[in-house]
Amino acid sequence: MKQVVIATKNKGKAKDFEALFTPLGFEVVTMFDVAPNLEIEETGTTFEENAILKAETLASTLGKIVIADDSGLAVDALGGEPGVYSARYAGDHDDGANIVKVIEKLRGVPDSERTARFCCALAIAGPNIETKTVFGTCEGVILHEKQGTNGFGYDPIFFVPSLGCSMAELTPDEKGKISHRGNAIRKLAMELPNILK
Ligand SMILES: O=c1nc[nH]c2c1ncn2[C@H]1C[C@H](O)[C@@H](COP(=O)(O)OP(=O)(O)OP(=O)(O)O)O1
Ligand SMILES: [Mg+2]
């Protein structure tokens, strides 16, 4: 099977990517498989900058074409927070603490003002190609408490109005059809067979 290398150490993302890439005929390989000790500091101020940083760093380490994902949650009532700092909002990669912080900050904010979106920048980089980025979003509303146990990150507090449930109540396949990550990959999909040979 053809392989696609993803510059991530997030197991939840890896699961999302497997659901999205398996139907396209690709096996997903992550940094756990190819560069477990590589640390990439996310110094960018936008999702695109961080995605490019991760993709280009791993691509030059491996000498291979790599895709990276930088993503997060933007809450309107919080002026777009936690945004690019989503993973380190309350504690470093502490999904539980990050969720508590968002819920606390939105205490007293009515449902009509709890709108938010997930954002995903994907970057593809590697030898003999020009680095390219695509961007996908998914609109939702922040819940008052966690609902559902699937997924990762902020999924349990992200209500998807069009489906009437939280992101954490969806299977990876269902999530991929509507998610920011799925929407970003669909923008890249046409070109992938030419790039990833
Ligand atoms: O579909 C999602 N469902 C729920 N939460 C999500 C999603 N997508 C991103 N998020 C949150 C998780 C993390 O708090 C941050 C990503 O941060 P981000 O730096 O891109 O990923 P990461 O550090 O976990 O893994 P890595 O950089 O190795 O890919 O946004
Ligand atoms: Mg990260």
Describe the fold and architecture.
It holds the Pfam family Ham1p_like. The protein has helices spanning 11-21, 31-34, 47-62, 95-105, 172-178, 180-188, 192-195, and strands at residues 2-6, 26-30, 66-75, 115-125, 132-142, 158-160, 165-166. It is of the alpha/beta class and 197 residues long. It has one domain: Maf protein, CATH 3.90.950.10. It has a seven-stranded mixed beta sheet. Helix 1 crosses helix 5 (172-178) and helix 5 crosses helix 6. It is globular and about 50 Å long. The structure holds 2'-deoxyinosine 5'-triphosphate (Y43) and magnesium ion (MG). Magnesium ion is lined by residues 42, 87. 2'-deoxyinosine 5'-triphosphate (Y43) binds next to strand 3.
- Backbone CA Rg: 16 Å
Q: Which percent band covers the strand fraction?
A: 15-25%
Q: What best-fitting shape do the alpha-carbon axes yield? A: globular
Which ions, cofactors or small ligands are bound in this entry?
A: 2'-deoxyinosine 5'-triphosphate, magnesium ion
- What is the CATH topology classification name? Maf protein
Instruction: Please identify the structural class as seen in this structure.
Output: alpha/beta
Question: What is the average per-residue confidence, as pLDDT, rounded to a whole number?
Answer: 96
Give a count of the beta strands, DSSP E runs of length 2 or more.
7
CATH architecture classification: Alpha-Beta Complex
CATH class: Alpha Beta
Strand order in the largest sheet: 2-1-3-4-5-6-7
H/I helix tally: 7
Sketch the topology as an H/E string, one letter per element.
EHEHHEHEEEEHHH
Main beta sheet, described? Answer: 7 strands, mixed
Level of helix content?
25-40%
Number of spatially distinct domains? 1
Low-confidence stretches: none
Note the gap between the termini: 11 Å
